[in-house]
Amino acid sequence: MAYCTLDDLKNLISETELAQLTAESGEEPDPEVVAWAIAQAGGEIDSYLAERYRVPLSEVPSQVQALAADMSIYHLYTRRSVAPRARRQKYEAAVAFLKEVIAGRAVLAGLEGELAQASRLAPEISSANRFFSRNGQKDW
User: Fold this and answer.
1) Based on the structure, what is the number of domains in the chain?
2) What is the extent of the structural domain holding 49?
3) DSSP conformation letters of 13-70
4) Which one, out of 10, 13, 86, 103, has a CA that is 20 to 30 A from the CA of 29?
5) Average pLDDT, the chain
6) Is residue 121 a part of any domain in this protein?
């Protein structure tokens, strides 16, 4: 599932810049290359969020949409050459936020009901009975 669209990318960079990053002719953005970058970002987001949420997300929060757009643009830049510093920083910030989410230090608004099965269960700990304890050893 795509977490952002071509229009989301156009809101962040100009159509001319998008065309230069995607199309060989540089005149019009290539929809296949844009779809590839969006899929790359979506897969990366899913790989992080799968630890805490059921993926692909049924509803796309605006946070995830913004992360996907920034990550997609970064992938388009790295396809051509080295990404500009600002794009790399946005990508790294997006990955850092996703890591905060899986660590439980940040949440995605509106996704409380979509926790993954593993996240819903509390861990159970059991062990064998103790052989040595203060009370068991007092007659020695």
Assistant:
1) 1
2) 6-105
3) S-HHHHHHHH-SSSSS--HHHHHHHHHHHHHHHHHHHTTTB-SS-SS--HHHHHHHHH
4) 86
5) 85
6) no
Q: Closest by alpha carbon to 104, among 118, 86, 124, 89? A: 118
pTM of the model: 0.77
Rounded Cα gap, residues 44 and 36, in angstroms:
12
Residue environment code for 26-50, b if the CB has 16+ CB neighbours within 10 A, otherwise e: eeebbeebbebbbebbbebbeebbe
Decide if 113 is inside a domain: no
- The tens digit of pLDDT for each residue in 25-37 reads 768 899 999 999 9
Q: Provide the token pair at 72.
A: 């997609």
7 Cβ neighbours under 8 A, 6+ residues apart: none
Q: Which of 51-60, 75-84, 121-130 has the lowest mean pLDDT?
A: 121-130
Has residue 124 been placed in a domain? no
- Domain assignment of residue 131, yes or no: no
Which tokens is 92 given?
Answer: 């790294």
